[in-house]
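Intended use. Records like the one below are meant for learning the mapping from a protein sequence to its folded structure. Do not use them to infer anything beyond what is encoded.
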Amino acid sequence: MDFFEGVCTRSAQFFHLIFTIESSCLHLQLLSFSERQRKIASLIPMTVPYRSSREVQNKIHIQVHYPLVTTIKELWKTATLLCRAKPEVLCSWFDRETEKIRLCLLLILVCGALYGMTLGVWRSPLQAVYVAVKFPLLIVLTMLGTGLINGMLAQLLGIAISFRQSLLAVLMSFALLSLILASFSPLLLFLVYNLPPMGSEGAGAGHRVLLLVNVAIITLSGLLANIHLYTLLVHICRTSSTALQLLFTWLTVNMFLGCQLSWNLRPFFGSPALPVRFLRDDPFAHSFYEAIYRMLF
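Structure written out for the chain above:
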């Protein structure tokens, strides 16, 4: 009996609460927006200060953080500053080396993977996945080797730049290179769409066209990235002759190291006559320069 009375009492309280809420909602709908805000504010205890809806939204916007959105905004800001390449702005990054190294590496991974995917998509979707992994790896390995060697060369030339700053400067140029290459990806996809498909009679000619076009794109992108790097070096070295000498040595090391690493990590385009693979069976058997010598002689 007591149990039945308790159930009836709680049911009556529940329906009374529902009726009260419906009546309050109907009353609020009949009020204007400003009157509705004042009514809601009168229901809040006096100990809680009243805030307008705009203040509440701003407070929520400040308190709630989304790591992915924040990272994307930082990447976009970093990419914008890299493309503008103002020397005084880029030199200020040396005071925040760890943060900028992380952002530049993220740019290389994202943009390099995007361009790498467009390199291998003509051969097959699996080749596109392989190259999307290998192309950022090629850039990072080349950057690490070039940064270490360039740091030693800078000390020999008497330039006041540390190994860490040298690595960041080289990383900036490679991040800008990745951005420029990624901007060519839509044009490259348009070219791939119009090339003869795999298995057709013109597949060999399409492979040669794709190879030449990508060599031209990479050369142009590297030239633009190093021009921006030169302006940064002039700001650091204070003289254009020293900056040009340092840039020439950096480019020489970059070319020799990058060509050899690209040979070891081949294939990138994928030959029509060979099966799709992540690496060749003998990636370290020969060298890039030995292959060039055999082609010439």
